Amino acid sequence: MGVTPDQLRPETQTLTGYDRVAKMSMGNVKLQVRAGGVTRKTKFAVVDAPPIYNVILGIPWIYAMKAVPSTYHLCLKFPTTTGIYTLYGDQRVARVCSVIEKKQRKTEDA
User: Fold this and answer.
1) Residue of 43, 45, 51 whose CA lies nearest to 19
2) What pLDDT digit, counting tens, does each position of 22-78 carry?
3) Residue 66: closest CA among 24, 22, 35, 99
4) In angstroms, what is the C-alpha Rg of the chain?
5) What is the pTM of this model?
6) Strand residues in 47-82 grouped as ranges (E)
7) Between vectors from CA 75 to CA 90 and to CA 71, what angle results, nearest 5°?
8) Three-class SS of residue 81?
9) Considering only CA atoms, which of 18, 10, 6, 12 is closest in space to residue 104?
């Protein structure tokens, strides 16, 4: 994602992945996130691991955006200056990520 080690703030924390393996973060970095015309500076924990996702936007970002997520509809709605914006997920990409994660888990368990 273009983040260099000198951009990290040395705040380590233990994170547990979807594979239930705990890892220590390398630090935190604040990045601008733009969605639906709204930009928010968001803090991310950086982990030295091959992820199936580039980033995971958690509760602090959802709260800051005043967003309402729907896992059933695979979307997120939040207010903008021009009305309500709906950010849709991609079911095909989500399915591929899920398959990759399951394969990684099976390989590590073997």
Assistant:
1) 51
2) 888 889 999 898 888 899 998 988 888 766 667 778 888 999 999 999 988 889 999
3) 35
4) 16
5) 0.68
6) 68-70, 75-80
7) 95
8) coil
9) 18
Token couple for 49: 């691991």
Asked whether 41 and 31 are in contact (CB, 8 A), the reply is yes
Q: Give the pair of three-digit tokens for residue 31.
A: 């990045």
Q: How far from 66 is each of 9, 75, 89, CA to CA, in Å?
A: 27, 14, 18
**11: helix, strand or coil:** coil
**SS3 helix, strand, coil % of the chain, rounded to 5?**
25, 35, 40
Half-sphere exposure of residue 59, counting CA atoms within 13 Å on the CB side? 0
